Amino acid sequence: MTTYLEFIQQNEERDGVRFSWNLWPSSRLEATRMVVPLACLLTPLKERPDLPPVQYEPVVCSRPTCKAVLNPLCQVDYQAKLWACNFCFQRNQFPPAYAGISEVNQPAELMAQFSTIEYVVQRGPQLPLIFLYVVDTCLEDDDLQALQESLQMSLSLLPPETLVGLITFGRMVQVHELSCEGISKSYVFRGTKDLTAKQIQDMLGLSKPAMPTQQTRPVQPQEQAFVSSRFLQPIHKIDMTFTDLLGELQRDPWPVTQGKRPLRSTGVALSIAVGLLEVTFPNTGARIMLFTGGPPTQGPGMVVGDELKVPIRSWHDIEKDNARFMKKAMKHYEMLANRTAANGHCIDIYACALDQTGLLEMKCCTNLTGGHMVMGDSFNTSLFKQTFQRIFSKDFNGDFRMAFGATLEVKTSRELKVAGAIGPCVSLNAKGSCVSENEIGVGGTSQWKICSLDPTSTLGIYFEVINQPSAPIPQGSRGAIQFVTQYQHSSTQKRIRVTTIARNWADVQSQLQLIEAAFDQEAAAVLMARLGVFRAESEEGPDVLRWLDRQLIRLCQKFGQYNKEDPTSFRLSDAFSLYPQFMFHLRRSPFLQVFNNSPDESSYYRHHFARQDLTQSLIMIQPILYSYSFHGPPEPVLLDSSSILADRILLMDTFFQIVIYLGETIAQWQKAGYQDMPEYENFKHLLQAPLDDAQEILQARFPMPRYVHTEHGGSQARFLLSKVNPSQTHNNLYPWGQETGAPILTDDVSLQVFMDHLKKLAVSSAC
Amino acid sequence: MSQQGYVATPPYSQSQPGIGLSPPHYGHYGDASHAASLPGMMKPVGNLGAAAPGVMVPPGPPLPGPHQLGPNAAHASGPSPQRFPGPPPVVSAAPTYAQYQPSTQSTYASPVSTSSVTHLGSQLSQLQVNSYGSGMAPPGQGPPCPPLAASFQGPPRPPQPPQPSILQPGSQVLPPPPTTLNGPSASPLSPPVHRQDGLPGPPPLSAQYQPPPPPGPVMGAGYPPQQQAANYGPQMAGAQLSYPGGFPGDAEQMAGPLPPQKKSDLDCIPSPIEVIENDRAIREGQVYATNTRGQVPPLVTTDCVIQDQGNASPRYIRCTTYCFPCTSDMAKQAQIPLAAVIKPFATIPSNETPLYLVNHGESGPVRCNRCKAYMCPFMQFIEGGRRYQCGFCNCVNDVPPFYFQHLDHIGRRLDHYEKPELSLGSYEFVATLDYCRKNKPPNPPAFIFMIDVSYSNIKNGLVKLICEELKTVLEKLPKEEQEETSAIRVGFITYNKVLHFFNVKSNLAQPQMMVVTDVAEVFVPLLDGFLVNYQESQSVIHNLLDQIPEMFADSNENETVFVPIIQAGMEALKAAECPGKLYIFHSSLPTAEAPGKLKNRDDKKLVNTDKEKILFQPQTNIYDSLAKDCVAHGCSVTVFLFPSQYVDVASLGLVPQLTGGTLYKYNHFQMHLDSQQFLSDLRNDIEKKIGFDAIMRVRTSTGFRATDFFGGVCMNNTTDVEMAAIDCDKAVTVEFKHDDRLSEDSGALIQCAVLYTTVGGQRRLRIHNLGLSCSSQLADLYKSCETDALINFFAKSAFKAVLHQPLKVIREILVNQTAHMLACYRKYCVTSTIARQLILPDSMKVLPLYMNCLLKNCVLLSRPEISIDERAYQRQLVMTMGVADSQLFFYPQLLPVHTLDVKSAALPAAVRCSESRLSEEGIFLLTNGLNTFLWLGVGSPPEAIQGIFNVPSFAHVNTDMTLLPEVGNPYSQQLRMIMNVIQEKWPYSMKLTIVKQREQPEMVFRQFLVEDKGLYGGSSYMDFLRCVHKEISQLLN
């Protein structure tokens, strides 16, 4: 543990946790003066191939209000077989099974390297996974065909006992019954009528407890608990039927006249899907996968009318309060999302269309339930196909990289309280002693429900130090936080992962240097960005930017070294040096800037930003730029217009896009066909290198990025030009007079200007 | 014959004046009105002629005789029975004549004169004159046998009953021979019969009637010219006879006759059998040309060949009267409804010419600019053919250039006979796009089959039966004549409390089922593949029909919906933009939570109260609005109901009724007994001729207009009759009222135009034109009446009123109007010395009887014993009936089959619907268009039983069968053949019930003996007649 960098990295690898501060200010007042809140990015299910789950249940503190899990930080009296809870200090007897415990014979959860440990709970019914496909049939034939293939492919990836169901929609909504033979049967609903859950259940004949059609099959006792629904059947039983059913899917037959959008009843279809699962399989892992090729155009949740001459709402419309259907639609989907979350199910949205599809309105369905949101141009693209396939990817154990119905509980030691969380979760409204009154993100609770998780799902969790200066914390003592994540593993096991971490307290007055050194500027940037994006969902864009700027200035004032009123004297320590730059790019990012993005795109970007882990989030904030040339091996270069050179190939990764950009000269060479000449094989290799690297990124990322291959002057070069720092623009190019980089035609401020201004403000005593 | 006599005589007297005999009559009558009436007599002449030789005489005599007899009969009937208990009918009649001659004579004075047979007439008149001051009855009989005459003379004194009775037959018989004209051939036969029969009783009826028939044919030969020249149908003349049978005005006489009546001598009151047989005798098998305006067509019961010569065939339009009064005052005076019963798609027998189709190309049919009437024979071309004057509104129109044609010397277009619209009463136009919805050519119609798959239907095998049958029936979907396959598309829905739609698209390996559970707001879940061409999707459809019974085999759903399925069907047709027909197979009260949900309201307590009408109305308004919606979208609904208990037919039947569909009802359906009836109904209904999405407009010439429409119609304004569909069995009754004065010259013209879509998806216009004459003489009006059409009108208007008025009021109105009509006749058209005599116009001879049958119908009879469903069913049934249907429905046909002549293909002669006509040794077949009964007397001959049932004796006959066993003997074959012949004429398949005399089921059978006192109330014919007479007497006073 030599440097904080290593410490941070180790902690992240072991516990999936990164804190903004790794030394904690010991009093409330000081903590608030630190500007960046005490917070962490938690990846609850971070993949730990080296951590086999233990096959027993955790030992918990017997105090009903605490129930913290036994962990390495606990004091243990091996003689008396007692342990003291490090959160509430309750002394607990070990259970009988721990009779043989001793210093040399410790259970895993007491070993320091098991600060994160996973338990397998053997109790309770093990329910199969459930996948309910909700498929839009108002698609072009190619699209529908491609989608059918993808869906059929997905069947082959699912374990045979998985329950599947199918709902298709267009003008009407069809719920397909899967248990009948000889004739395919479906229940049809009008797409315009909002139905209550009760109505849906009555209409589907689900309200009666015992269905006459229920099959009696030899099953384990725990499986009798659920009503075998006619609409959800295990794959192994209906494999052929289901494949045929998918194969026979027809385009919505209702005629669409010229100048009209097809009538698409997404709102009702989702509502029915939610209602169906709600009554048949509450509180078990289930995915509703919505595949849609356009905006909902009728019924509850409609986003736009069917007149093509009326375009779908833009940010401009929204600002002008001109989006007729938006509020109502959002209310509808929010209601659905909350119900889904309450049932422990999740909703994925796969929206593939050239125009908007109403993701803005539907975003809470995914955001509140932890579902995926995928946006593409067409189902007939590799982007969709591979992304969809990746959902079913398996981990080192051969299990799906997905978990269901998780609850995350946060326990803190007394000096701390939890203020809230930002991520794909909903509050469970669990009040308790460790819940802060100040809410940051989704607060007011110490427990959250995360209906769907994957190994990269990451939450930002914000804390508040409540210790008063009057009650100083003893030197060298540590604050502790325990994260308890209970979830349904994709193997249908119930598991509990417990992560307990501790950090030292430090007195700001005396130990500011130490605290500064323990600052994790990357985590801080992401955590602040999450806050900003969270605010942007409900506030006007400019307000959020102003807030972010003020925070940055305050941080610089607090931790910068400068002379008053002397911008040139301003210096930041290494631990803070990158932070302003992150903020600069964040300000320009699509998460906060809606210009040039549709509301759907903004929602899409924000969705992913609020769930990815730190590394990915940083890429989103500040894209990575690699340069390939004959001058040496590929190197990361500044995300700056000055990096755009004629004899370079650039590879930019913005998380959502992978852009390969051939410099002017390179592009000319390529056109001239040098790469095909044996004597210029090295050029061929040069061209190939970024492609290979891009492929590597493409393989690993979910969702699959948009892959752009362009060159100097190409129309798609805009993807690159819009991201780089406009250090050279048409305004300042000529004075510089040298041929480095490419000028960007923009009035945006460059990083240089931004920094200058920042320095000026930071040193100013005015603010 | 005696009856005829009764009836016939008066008319003759009136109408015949034109004929030689008239003078004397005039003398008698003295009144100008009588003179006027004489022309009418012409018809009677015809009859007489028909009766011809043999008959001729009888008529002659009858005329006088009848008149006398008529009155006598009534009176005499009383006395006669006493004296002639055994043979009451015949005998009684005779005696009555004798007795009442005096009174009748006066009335008959005119008749005599009228007697068409001039020769006879003259003779008679002379005789009469000579012999009697009045010369009335005596003359008729007189000529033949003086003794009779004497006896008649005697009759004036009531006391001599026996003689008269004898005399009558004698008189009738005798006259023939004497009549020089026709007499010889016919007379010989008839006389003996008369005599013989006369005494026996039942036979007498036939005997009496028989005489006329033979003459009929003869007449045809000999008299036609005369008849035509003089007046129209001979029958009419006969019919026109006032009802001489009138009850004597004198209290004494009344007293006298009444008691005898009680003893029920039917023979002395007008017999429908006789009327029918008379008409048949004259017209059966003949060609009836429609070339004359105001011509009264043969009765519906008479088979003849109709030749369209400028007026629509009576198969299409029948009027209550063929002569309209010139003024509304006259119409009010007579109170005879002016109405036409229009059956625009009536089936035409194969030996008549089908309608010509006229195609004027893009310009469409030629129409009057002002009133929009279509080109027809009533248009008068003028100015060398350049213009034409509309016969309806008199507007002068230019002839469109493409339509121009020169006129010949009599002002007729040269192409008169080449163009159906110029020379025919009925024809069709091809409609242009202007006549189509949204100006787009219509799509061919679709049939949607909707099967109730609730528990009971599955359990009793009905669903399986339907599915099996559909496979066969679908092969026979109606198609255009020239097409090879039907253009009709089919769709399938099953339902209980939810709806299951089926996708049977031809490219599917197996059908797809789509369940719609949102019955509160039903919709069609699929577009493509729901309505398909049967041929293309045959395998998928068969697959489906095979699966349906099994699919729901485990269903235990008992609740059903009704309105939502109709809505679904309508929506489906709407979505497919085509008209069509829904076939709904339903069995229970729709109690599931859905629009149109019904509760059981079979409340016997309401019967016979002012609230009874509620029972005939639908429970909620939704049925009415749904029916309107259906009509608006060309969706016809036919329902097959299989109720095992109360199902609220009043509600369920409304939509079928108003959308031109049919409601079939099979109470307590049992697979082994009723499936045959159901299946043949289904087959017939699917195969029958039908037009869709129809709008009918009835245009009239100036002076009157159509004011009211009865039937399966929907009207959004006062003139356009909208019908989702109209088939060959549906009739619309239209009532007319005066606007202004009608002129005798131009007459009253009616043009009925029906715009519709054919089964092949063509838009067409069907035009029926009918010209009626007009007269300022009431007698003409009475002369031209058609009792069957009148009853049709009365039944429909009464059954319509049932919804709004207490039944008691309706019954009173009917009786009053009957009395009024007859009183008016009595007052203005008949000179009678005896004021209180009941005299019926010949054309309305059986009106009181039929009216009584109508009054006794269970709809108008407030009796809790009869299920309200059955009453509602019959009410709705009658609303769409044509004249022939209503005639049989109200007066069933009773055939003695034990006398079946195995060698003859002819039906046995019907007998009157009265218990007195049954005999223990007899077997009778009774049909009313809905039911068939085979009644077995306890003494039925074992050979007959053996022949029919193949069992040794009466006791062995198992009545639990609805089909006669196929026994290989001629008797059985003959009987079954007869039943088939009868069945073929009626739209509903009739369920056969075997009834043994003196067994419980006989009660049902007896309800149909409509001349007797009703089982559940309703007076006997005789009682009613007396009642009517009393009313008339009061009116006259």
From TrEMBL, chain A:
Organism classification: Eukaryota, Metazoa, Chordata, Craniata, Vertebrata
Domain Gelsolin-like: 634-720
GO biological process: COPII-coated vesicle cargo loading; intracellular protein transport
Gene Ontology molecular function terms on file: GTPase activator activity; zinc ion binding
Function: Component of the coat protein complex II (COPII) which promotes the formation of transport vesicles from the endoplasmic reticulum (ER). The coat has two main functions, the physical deformation of the endoplasmic reticulum membrane into vesicles and the selection of cargo molecules for their transport to the Golgi complex.
Domain Zinc finger Sec23/Sec24-type: 58-98
Protein's name according to its UniProt entry: Protein transport protein SEC23
Cellular localization per UniProt: Cytoplasmic vesicle, COPII-coated vesicle membrane; Endoplasmic reticulum membrane; Cytoplasm, Cytosol
Membrane topology: Peripheral membrane protein
Entry similarity comment: Belongs to the SEC23/SEC24 family. SEC23 subfamily.
Cellular compartments per GO CC: COPII vesicle coat; cytosol; endoplasmic reticulum exit site; endoplasmic reticulum membrane; perinuclear region of cytoplasm
Occurrences of domain Sec23/Sec24 trunk (ranges): 127-392
Record-linked CDD domains: Sec23-like, Sec23_C
Domain Sec23/Sec24 helical residue range list: 520-618
InterPro entries from the UniProt entry: ADF-H/Gelsolin-like_dom_sf (IPR029006), Beta-sandwich_Sec23_24 (IPR012990), Gelsolin-like_dom (IPR007123), Gelsolin-like_dom_sf (IPR036180), Sec23 (IPR037364), Sec23/24_helical_dom (IPR006900), Sec23/24_helical_dom_sf (IPR036175), Sec23/24_trunk_dom (IPR006896)
Keywords from the UniProt entry: Cytoplasm, Cytoplasmic vesicle, Endoplasmic reticulum, ER-Golgi transport, Membrane, Metal-binding, Protein transport, Transport, Zinc
Annotated organism of origin: Cavia porcellus
Domain Sec23/Sec24 beta-sandwich: 403-506
